[in-house]
Amino acid sequence: MDAILLQILNGIDKGSAYALIALGLTLVFGTLGVVNFAHGALFMLGAFCAVTLQKFLTLSKITIDPTRLDFLGKPAKIKTPYVEAWFGEAAGQAIINWSVPLAILFAIPVMFLVGVIMERGLIRHFYKRPHADQILVTFGLAIVLQEIIKAIYGANPIQMSAPDELQGVANMGAALGLKLSYPIWRIVYFCFAVVIIGSVFAFLKFTTFGMVVRAGMADRETVGLLGIDIDRRFTFMFGVAAAVAGVAGVMYTPINPPNYHWGMDFLVISFVVVVVGGMGSLGGAVLAGFMLGVLEAFASTTWATTTIPGINQIVIYLVAIIILLTLPRGLLGRKGVMEE
């Protein structure tokens, strides 16, 4: 029972990332009808927003301490982060310690702006072009963004740490009498994903802006005839989708050290999630993300990989084939989406 619950938690953890990326992808496709192959790169850019903030917060000034000597017998050079000099040692260390959660405040406006620039500067010119053209141009954009990050930050993964208070493991099975422990930060990431997903759904369902967006997703021309600038609202939603992918990347950095090819690592799987859930279905994207995450976790167990070598690498695609053969529109797909 402990092993089963552990794999479920592992799957939910991984599924949280899949669901967040797929949610943004579906927002873009549902509003603009664009197949955005650069969305995985937005997840990667969000992660490097956290890296950038951490590097900024750890910038240090060097002072000479004549009371301390280095290994050569000379006065020691002491590095003091500027934030400690500005806010005091205790406050400065706390800011550096919580740099990953604080990076959310930095990533949201940055990623929203990146999304708006992408939509206004490039994506808008491909609205009426075939999906193949959209895939080619956004895939090319993803490669460009990847190489820019590689040139700036290098090719090696960059270690990021969760706050000290959120490191370690929590006893998840104490109430059930089980010996089940799980990393605290992974639990935090799942809770964070639930909050973000719930916020997006609540925004679309309970706000006037969201209701107009949903109406535009269903019938763009009619909404436009009512005098509503639906294009501007869709641009805003592209920025929201980019911000969702960005904050997902920020919070994932302590789980997996970010590197420049993160975008490509998550790109294919996230599109499989969207297709399995149903193109244009937000609920389907979330459901498929968690479902495929759990299946991948169970397929990665020693028993599974020993019984069927390599099953952990292909299980998602096998499940996708089976689902699409039985449900061609995906789990919650709508009639007429990409069926012309």
CATH architecture: Orthogonal Bundle
Number of helices: 14
Q: Tell me the total number of β-strands.
A: 4
CATH topology: ABC transporter involved in vitamin B12 uptake, BtuC
Strand order of the largest sheet: 1-2
CATH class: Mainly Alpha
Classify the beta-strand content into a percent band.
Answer: 5-15%
Helix content: 55-70%
Terminal-residue CA separation = 47 Å
Structural features, described:
By secondary structure, the protein is mostly helical. The chain has a single domain (about 1-325), classed as ABC transporter involved in vitamin B12 uptake, BtuC (Orthogonal Bundle). Helices cover about 70% and strands about 5% of the residues. It contains 14 helices and four strands. The strands form two sheets. Strands 1-2 form a two-stranded antiparallel ribbon. It has a two-stranded antiparallel sheet with strand order 3-4. Strand 1 and strand 2 form a beta hairpin. It starts with a helix and ends in a 14-residue tail after the last helix.
